[in-house]
Amino acid sequence: MRTKMRRAGAIVAALAAATAAHAAGGTDAYQALGVDPGKVISGTVIRSKVIPGAKQQLVCVATYFTGDRDPARAANVRVGVFDESGEELVPVYTRDLGEEHDGQVGNGDLQLLDLDRDGVNEMVITWDDFSDPLIDQRWAEVVMHDDGAGMHSAWTGHVEYDATRAAREIPAERRDRFKREIDIAATMRSRGRTLWMVKKVIAIAGERLPAPREVEESFPLRGDVGP
To answer: How far is it, in rounded angstroms, from Cα 81 to Cα 218?
Structure first.
């Protein structure tokens, strides 16, 4: 019972970090990203510690209309981490997902989770990939800070995938449908060495299963944390 209570407490602590109060100054953050606040479709701005040190940073993700006539680039997702110590926001880490993926992105979202229990939150960025109209794809990326590498991507993969309609484009063995969720408690127990996920498989090779099948998956995340 005590073990279950400790696990529940760890999850609550992680979720509390992920749902930190919406920071003031969202307009400033969007402008610092190079985004017109009036064109933002959805966005999240959180003040939290994602880099070791005494100060918090302003962390932002924005999905916005670009004004581009090319449908593939009509919307974009940008991510930014900013230092607030001066009069202006200073970018520490920025991403332009549309530029990285040749457009076709949308519905960006952000969670902050202290997966290695070091008092510094990792960023979990998610977005939709519209590159193939017959395949539903949502990606996730875990971004963390290391002393040597700074802010960097530690894991990238699908959290939602459905290729069951792509009969002509995708080989039968790849026409799967599944969803993934981070197992926060298991990942925290590993102190961030391993990213544990629960994969719910709904269809395999184009055939829907009688009932969804849950599979536990693990991926290396970082290897430099203490015991």
So the answer is: 28
Number of domains in the chain: 1
* Digit-coded pLDDT (tens) for 61-99: 999 999 999 999 999 999 999 999 888 899 999 999 999
Beta carbons within 10 angstroms of residue 2's beta carbon: 6
34 in a domain, yes or no? yes
CA distance 101 to 88: 29
Residue position matching structure tokens 């960097």: 152
pLDDT digits (tens, 9 = 90+) for 102-151: 999 999 999 999 999 999 999 999 999 999 999 999 999 999 998 888 99
How distant, in Å, are the alpha carbons of 78, 85, 212 from that of 106? Answer: 10, 31, 27
Contact 25, 98 (CB under 8 A): no
Locate 49 and state its tokens.
């510690």
Element at 13 (helix H, strand E): helix 2-18
140-167 mean pLDDT = 93
Q: Tell me the pTM.
A: 0.85
**Is residue 225 in a domain?**
no
Domain that residue 44 falls in? 2-220
CA torsion, points 162, 126, 11, 3, in degrees to nearest 10?
50
Cα 193 from Cα 197, distance rounded (Å) = 13
For 1, 110, 182, the CA distances from 128, given in Å and listed in that order, are 39, 13, 17
Tell me, yes or no, whether 149 lies in a domain.
yes
Residue 3 sits at φ, ψ, to 5 deg, of -60, -45
Q: Half-sphere exposure of 115 toward its Cβ, with a 13 Å CA cutoff? A: 25
